[in-house]
Specification:
Layout: H1 27-57, H2 64-93, H3 100-133, H4 135-141, H5 144-167, H6 186-223, H7 228-264, H8 266-269, H9 273-298, H10 300-310
Helix pairs in contact: 1-2, 1-9, 2-3, 2-5, 2-9, 3-4, 3-5, 3-6, 3-7, 6-7, 7-9
């Protein structure tokens, strides 16, 4: 995630508001926005918390793909906990209410979780492509340990990368009064655009195009065999997983791409830049809210896990061994 609100001398590029001012026609509208923001934040946190509990607790869900989904849910949960409240409050108030030290911390967390989310989605695409293109090799080579190592490295690399990004751009020294946005110079902006947007998004799009071509080819091949039912059953779960995760990835790209388009249109948007980019940032963060809905709508295992959690059956002895995959992936 990149912003460019100051010039090379640390002066703000856009005119600043001297103080916070309510721009709403009534107190009811003002309060309703805070109520809406609270609902979104709580739904984001608890929706992803259910995913985390389900995957961690139920041993049947301990698969390499679900480890990647767990990592994504953790980053989405932290977005709801740390990032969305700050962003929505700044958006509603039309300025920053926070001190520079808090803004630096908030920006660090925001950049870090953005990077983690994008690369979690990227590795989910890699995982599905490998599972469908080389199913036998996938079952032998891809393990829980490998998935755990990959996700751990994503979190570590993201932390060091974003610390360097903010530090070397002077974000712990230069501040825009009344704003909570960091400064990224043109060179770092270009590098970050490639690393955090172009490279992972290109990888995601190319791999999922290949995934659907492979799935179609498998379907044609299965129909041509005599042992249709057995072959169909053996590949159905992988194809369904690829389809559902394709929906997850598509929604992610729909939420992400408009934001980066706004970043590239800074000069064109001019005075409306603040308003437009805030909408695009909100859309991107709302992806963390939407993901649990996708799990709830398309994953039978998540639906069953929710029932176990709400009925407190998950607290019973040996509940971790319960079957939640009987009706398919």
């Amino acid at each position: 995630m990149t912003f460019n609100e100051m010039n090379s001398t640390g002066n703000c590029l856009l005119p600043l508001k001297s103080s916070c001012s309510k721009i709403y026609s009534s107190e009811a509208a003002y309060m309703s926005l805070y109520v809406f923001a609270a609902v979104v934040v709580l739904f984001t946190m608890f929706g992803n918390l259910f995913v985390i509990i389900s995957v961690c607790h139920l041993k049947q869900l301990h698969t390499p793909t679900n480890i990647l989904i767990l990592s994504l849910a953790m980053s989405d949960f932290l977005v709801g906990l740390f990032v969305m409240p700050v962003h929505l409050m700044i958006w509603i108030e039309s300025c920053s209410l926070f001190k520079p030290a808090f803004c630096s911390f908030s920006n660090m967390i925001s950049f870090h979780l953005t990077f983690v989310s994008i690369y979690n989605i990227t590795f989910i695409a890699v995982d599905r492509y490998f599972a469908l293109s080389n199913p036998f090799l996938y079952s032998k080579k891809v393990s829980l340990l490998l998935a755990f190592i990959i996700t751990t490295h994503v979190w570590i690399v993201s932390l060091f990368y974003n610390c360097a990004l903010l530090y070397f751009n002077g974000n712990f020294k230069h501040k825009c009064s009344g704003r909570c946005l960091p400064y990224i110079n043109e060179l770092w902006f270009t590098a970050d655009l490639v690393i955090v947007f172009i490279l992972p998004c290109a990888t995601i799009i190319i791999l999922y195009m290949k995934v659907f071509f492979i799935a179609r080819r498998h379907a044609v091949a299965i129909r041509a065999t005599l042992d249709y039912q057995n072959n169909y059953d053996s590949t159905r779960s992988e194809r369904k997983a690829a389809k559902v995760l394709g929906i997850l990835v598509s929604v992610f790209l729909i939420c992400l791409i408009p934001y980066y388009i706004c970043m590239l249109l800074f000069d064109v948007l001019a005075q409306s830049y603040d308003h437009v980019v805030n909408i695009m940032i909100t859309l991107f963060f709302l992806n963390s809210t939407i993901n649990p809905l996708i799990y709830a709508l398309f994953y039978p295992w998540f639906q069953k896990s929710m029932k176990l959690i709400f009925t407190f059956r998950i607290c019973k002895t040996d509940s971790s061994l319960m079957n939640v995959l009987s009706s398919g992936y």
